[in-house]
Amino acid sequence: MDEIKTVNPGRRAAYASLCKMRAGKYTNLEVGTMLSRMQLSEADRGLYTALVYGVTERLITLDYIIGTLSGRQLTTLDEGVLCALRIGLYQLAYMDRIPPHAAVSQSVSLAPAKGRGFVNALLRTFVRGGCAVSLPDRADKQDLSVRYSVPAPLCAAFLDWFGKDTTERIFAAFLEKEKPALRINTLRVGASDAARRLGGVVSDLCNGCVKVTSFDGVLEGVESGDWFVQDEASALCASVLGACPGDTVVDVCAAPGGKSFAMAMDMEDQGRIYAFDLHKNKLSLIERGARKLGLSILETEARDARSPKESLIGKADRVLCDAPCSGLGVIGKKPDIKYKDLDAMSRLPQVQYDVLVGAAAYVRPGGTLVYSTCTLNPEENTGVTDRFLKAYPEFAPYPFSFQGEVQSSLTLLPHIHGTDGFYICRMQRR
Predict the structure, then answer these.
(1) 155, 209, 237, 374: which one is catalytic?
(2) 157-213, pLDDT tens digit by residue?
(3) What phi-psi label fits residue 59: left (phi over 0), alpha (psi between -120 and 50 degrees) or beta?
(4) 374 carries an active-site annotation
(5) Is the distance from CB of 35 to CB of 17 less than 8 angstroms?
(6) Are strands 363-373 and 316-322 parallel, antiparallel or unpaired?
(7) pTM score, two decimals?
(8) What's residue 192's pLDDT?
(9) Distance (Å, whole) CA 127 – CA 92
(10) Alpha helices by DSSP H, 95-115
(11) How much is the pLDDT for 385?
């Protein structure tokens, strides 16, 4: 216990979180809870966050290294020993600013007393080998899984959807540290002005977005309501809906509110947006965000999208159905998603279809309906919209222009567009 007290507080917190998260807790929830509970310096907060997300992101690769160096089955290792090894190896292999001696000694101190000798020996062996990550042969069926730390069943699914070359490019993009994107509150500041203030560039995918290289100066603008963090794909989704001043808009799965906020800005805060969500406790996120951004046209309500509000049926000019999904397009931001059970995801397309049918009831004749997800699973994307368009012939594909091409549906890929993996389909009620 005394040895653990001497460990850097950021590493100690990361060790505690990673040991708990093996029980299946979401990374962002665990990180939020720990940071709110512990009094950590800014540097320690950064180290803690980097270790928790980093170890989660590279878990399969780290475990492969441990198994290779030790010659032991991981199931025979104490959980505390395993967590200490992962933290040590991650620092040695992927964090170039941490001296090897610090990574080794601190990780050894984290481990349970009976396992410290083993942790010390394995980490020092790795250092003597130049901290080189030895991966399976390219022809090995484990290659993609180990190289990009993606479970074998999910690898197989992506290979079926995209083929090997595109799958590898997507997986590599998930591991890249992408530039943050901000949706600018164009009611207060122009995108070009914001880009100059932040040292960023206006997005070529969505005019209201700015890409920045770091978060320097970002938080001040978030607090003042000049902008909020939003991936370009999400901002583009709101833009494709085409909301205009004076429109009546329904966002059936609105929390935490980013797309509703973007649409309100497009509408110049004129008209009405009904921001519905199944979970009542999430509505406060939308309300607080709208107040900070100075938006007055949002009206929130807890509502199951599969049961439309009768007074709004057939009344909306635009309806956004950003359906609950597997999240397989945002693995780069939420690495724990890739460890979810694929069987549980198989139930989603029916839920998504039902949500889309409910959302469609709000659309007036001539009105616009957009279905979107942040997944790359075709069954949750084209599988849902193709089924819907076949069953409801009063709706038809409604083309839009994207980078000079006219199309009614679009799949954004991380390695091509530099965004989250995202699907957008626009339809119109005849």
Answers:
(1) 374
(2) 999 999 999 999 999 999 998 788 999 999 999 999 999 999 999 999 998 999 998
(3) alpha
(4) yes
(5) no
(6) parallel
(7) 0.94
(8) 96
(9) 8
(10) 100-110
(11) 98
Q: Both ends of the chain: CA-CA distance in Å?
A: 70
Q: Which residues contact 35 (CB under 8 A, 6 or more apart)?
A: 45, 48, 49
Q: How far is CA 68 from CA 78, 141, 143, in A?
A: 17, 17, 14
Residue range 257-276: average pLDDT? 98
Cα separation, 418 vs 36, whole angstroms: 31
- Which residues of 35-184 form beta strands (DSSP E)? 181-184
Paired strand residues for 277: 302
Q: Which residue has the tokens 């509970």?
A: 37
CA-to-CA distance for 172 and 258, rounded, in angstroms?
27
Q: Write the burial class of residue 245 (CB in 10 Å: 0-12 exposed, 13-18 middle, 19+ buried).
A: exposed
Residue 315 pairs in a beta bridge with none
DSSP per-residue codes, 154-218: HHHHHHHHHHHHHHHHHHHHHHS-PPPEEEE-TTTS-HHHHHHHHT-EE-SS-TTEEE-SS-TTH
Contact, 361 vs 173, CB < 8 A? no
**Could you tell me the two tokens for 128?**
């003597």
pLDDT of residue 22: 63
